[in-house]
Amino acid sequence: MSELKMVENAIIVIISVLSLSLLLTQITSIELPIIFALKARNTLVAGPPSTQFGTSPELSTSQMSASTNKTCTLILSTVKPVGTPQQTEGPYFVDDIPERSDIRSDPSDGSVQQGILVHLVIHVYSVDHGSCIPLKGSRVDIWHANSQGIYSNVQDLGTARKRFLRGNQVTDGNGTVQFTTIYPGWYQGRTIHIHDKVRTFNGLVKTMEWTSQL
């Protein structure tokens, strides 16, 4: 099976969220029974938020150990794993968002969204015969509402041409990207969530797209 076909059929995203009061690891799969092996320690991020927007503040060795999963193993599976299920993109995706890890600020005026600080570490894997292969060089976009439940770049919300709480990063050799953001606010009709999209490209040609929500 070609690498592209394998990625299209099976992709797993492991998300570790660290904040001043939150440690969340979310692992989902569309097929059962599948067991994911994840080793992590309960480590909280200490210290004030970074004021250098556009780059993610450095994590300590213990934080990196807690938030980076070097191994992903699928066991006790009697069916072919197809990875994390996709979900709807929603109406507020914007393709021309800046490549940055700290997404709290708005590039148009430098204003900063206030809220509970969250460090988001996303590990992206393709699946080959029950083993996870880090998906290097894929573009990961995330976007979400601010603490008041408002999205940027929405005319009806008065945020046209704004780009706060939007950004993308390219996965490293471990299939990992990191973002600094704030905890999203609730709005009518939806559970609190963060949108995410993973894409691969051959030059300017898109070769794979996967969309979901955390």
What does this structure look like?
The N terminus is likely disordered. The protein is globular and about 45 Å long. With 214 residues, the protein is mostly beta strands. The longest helix is centred in the N-terminal third of the chain and has 7 residues. A hairpin with a 2-residue loop joins strand 10 and strand 11. It has one domain: Aromatic compound dioxygenase (Protocatechuate 3,4-Dioxygenase, subunit A, Sandwich). It has two helices and eleven strands. Strands 1, 2, 5, 6 and 9 form a five-stranded antiparallel β-sheet that branches. It has a four-stranded antiparallel β-sheet with strand order 8-7-10-11, covered by helices on one side. Strands 3-4 form a two-stranded antiparallel sheet.
Secondary structure: elements and pairs:
Elements: H1 3-9, E1 11-19, E2 23-27, E3 35-36, H2 61-67, E4 74-75, E5 117-128, E6 131-134, E7 139-143, E8 166-170, E9 176-182, E10 195-202, E11 205-213
Task: Supply database-style keywords.
214 residues; mainly beta; Protocatechuate 3,4-Dioxygenase, subunit A; 5-stranded antiparallel sheet; 4-stranded antiparallel sheet; 7% helix; globular
Q: What would you say about this model in short?
A:
With 214 residues, the chain is mainly beta. It has two helices and eleven strands; from the N terminus they run αβββαββββββββ.
